[in-house]
Write a structure and sequence with these properties.
- Chains A, B: It comes from Sinorhizobium terangae.
- The structure is a homodimer.
- The first copy, chain A, is elongated, with a radius of gyration of 26 Å.
- Chain A contains 11 helices and 12 strands.
- Helix content of chain A is 40%, strand content 16%.
- The termini of chain A are far apart.
- Chain A is of the alpha/beta class.
- In chain A, the strands form 2 sheets. Chain A has a 6-stranded parallel beta sheet with strand order 2-1-3-4-5-11, sandwiched between helices. The first copy, chain A, has a 6-stranded mixed beta sheet with strand order 7-6-8-9-10-12, sandwiched between helices.
- Chain A folds into 3 domains: 7-49, lambda repressor-like DNA-binding domains (434 Repressor (Amino-terminal Domain), Orthogonal Bundle), CATH 1.10.260.40; 60-155 and 290-319, Rossmann fold; 159-289, Response regulator (Rossmann fold, 3-Layer(aba) Sandwich), CATH 3.40.50.
- In chain A, helix 1 (7-14) packs across helix 3 (33-46), helix 2 (18-25) packs across helix 3 (33-46) and helix 9 crosses helix 10 (245-257).
- Chains A and B meet through helix 4, helix 5, strand 2 and helix 10 of A and helix 4, helix 5, strand 2 and helix 10 of B.
- Chain A binds a DNA duplex through helix 2 and helix 4.
DNA sequence: ATGAAAGCGCTAACAC
DNA sequence: GTGTTAGCGCTTTCAT
């Protein structure tokens, strides 16, 4: 047998033309059941697999989509990837993972992969469009993050509302001096979570001294660092609303190092509900995003676009969050 | 301008043949510097990108490799992926992530992707070959896990030695009743880590009652569950050597739930050094694997194979581990 | 229902 | 150094 059987090999053995084989393989109605069966059997016997390059070249579809994140090293993206992958597989698409590390060159590169036929569409989770421009009308869905004025469809959560709810919880159990460790600014997601914090404080008639808002970068070490800053203040907070779980881990760790009990002395609330947060000590109170669902919905949307449907890009799709109240929050000491 | 410029478009404008354009674009020496420059300028101006399908079809190389893991949801793989990706990019390869979920059908499918031209080579981290067989001589590198008798090159760590060292640490600080929560059996990696545990115990003249070896599945909940089993024994252990960090988190969590202090009452050692382990409470004593380096070395090896070099498959490449002693281990109570 | 043939965009012989 | 040409393996008209 040849190295890799091709349609021609099957055709010769079956005594039919390549066209017929192609039709049989793609379940066309234009083949008699009997011929089709013979061809299918032969294909199985030869262990035939269609060459993807040839097929893509001809059909002009790669049957794969690009999932672009800013850091594959972040476990947060994993469940989203799973959601995307499951949905993609079902529709016969494979998923290519793209990692930008916030490098504009790489951001552009992944967009170029849409043009060179590497992928048919893209789910973008970097919150940025590449600098060059000219990326409208492309089959791109923005998930998780937001890109304003891009005219692209969005799948996200209500970051403002979710943050507000988290801070309201702290207020409801008696906290007044609540500080916020934010993500990098002026990114929209960070801004929104901070806005939710501010709204909750304002609604409760609570002051937010400028020193109570510290800017982090979503990484664990940054949580530690921001926490240290807050606890050198003359009047340190009794509770922290931290913009993601990873920094919340860092903050809780640093608090313990400084001799503060969590939640005895200081309450901590995170955002994301990483899968370790429930095993963390103390189990972290945090906002849970429907990550797999975000991936699923984003992929569904992309499939729709790829099938030629018109999509309304004005209204983002908003998925619900849940505040999980665990052991890291408690009423302040009297 | 055409929808997507192709070589022909450039050729027409440059007043040369497609062959010349192709040569100029691939930096062939058979073009005058002047012609090349003209073509390059034109290509840039038209924003030309070669069609990957056409190129792959012709060259019979996809310039991408497959990285197959059993669970993309496991953060453990992320650093490996980063190592693989960086090395692959440099050589002009893209990386496709494959996720098997331990499903034999999917395991086979990824191997098939090598045959249908989707990828040129594969880094396999599932520890299994698909059932069908016939996968020798394929450009495959096994990383992290081991597959015996497959005739494939391996990149891994010395699991036996690393486990032994971890348990020796527990023994050296005075523990005698040391239990082991293993990974799924009879997988080679689990077996090796257990073997290291047994060796350390044997060398110290310590008994391992059968009930002190509990089988887990590397997931957090499994760590909890195994821990519960161990602490219903008439003589529970004073220390645990757990086959990975995730189960160690679960075990530590469960110990606290049951009212045991870590490390006051029970010491816990993990394996993997996930990035959260240092912020865990108490900071986890654990074996660190050079994950990015594993990815890097595996990809280098794969590149060598793809370039046609002969590889010695008899001797695995062994990378060093480091035992990080942190707060989760302490001498037993007197 | 089946076959012949064109061609997707590119590269690599082979000519000159 | 450049052009001509023949495919890579597949799908899809257009005939029959």
């Amino acid at each position: 047998m040849r190295e890799r059987p091709k349609i021609k090999d099957i055709a010769e053995r079956a005594g039919v033309s390549v066209a017929t084989v192609s039709r049989a393989l793609s379940d066309s109605a234009l083949v008699t059941a009997e011929t089709r069966q013979r061809i299918l059997d032969l294909a199985r016997e030869l262990n035939y697999r269609p060459n993807v390059s040839a097929r893509s070249l001809r059909t002009r579809r790669s049957m794969s989509v690009l999932l672009v994140v800013r850091d594959v090293g972040n476990p947060f993206y994993l469940d989203i990837l799973k959601g995307v992958e499951a949905t993609a597989r079902e529709a016969g698409y494979s998923v290519l993972m793209g990692n930008t590390e916030s490098d504009p060159a790489r951001e552009t590169e992944y967009f170029n992969m849409l043009r060179d036929g590497h992928a048919d569409g893209m789910i973008l989770m970097t919150g940025k469009l590449p600098p060059a421009g000219g990326w409208s009308h492309l089959p791109v869905v923005v998930a998780l993050e937001m890109i304003e004025g891009a005219g692209l469809p969005h799948v996200q959560v209500d970051n403002i509302g979710a943050a507000r709810e988290a801070v309201e919880h702290l207020i409801s159990i008696g906290h007044r001096r609540i500080a916020h460790i934010s993500g990098p600014l002026p990114e929209l997601m960070s801004l929104h979570r901070r806005e939710g914090y501010r709204e909750a404080m304002r609604n409760a008639g609570l002051d937010v001294p400028e020193s109570y808002e510290v800017r982090g970068n979503y990484l664990l070490e940054s949580g530690q660092e921001c926490c240290r800053k807050l606890f050198t203040l003359p009047e340190p907070p009794t509770a922290l609303f931290v913009a993601n779980d990873e920094m919340a881990y860092g903050a809780a760790y640093e608090l313990r190092r400084m001799g503060h009990d969590v939640p005895g002395d200081v309450s901590v609330v995170g955002f994301d509900d990483l899968y370790l947060s429930k095993a963390f000590y103390p189990p972290l109170t945090t906002v849970s995003q429907p990550r797999a669902e975000i991936g699923h919905v984003a992929m569904e949307l992309l499939l729709k676009i790829l099938s030629g449907a018109e999509i309304d890009c004005d209204e983002p799709i908003i998925l619900p969050t849940v505040l999980h109240i665990r052991g890291s929050t408690a009423p302040p000491r009297q």
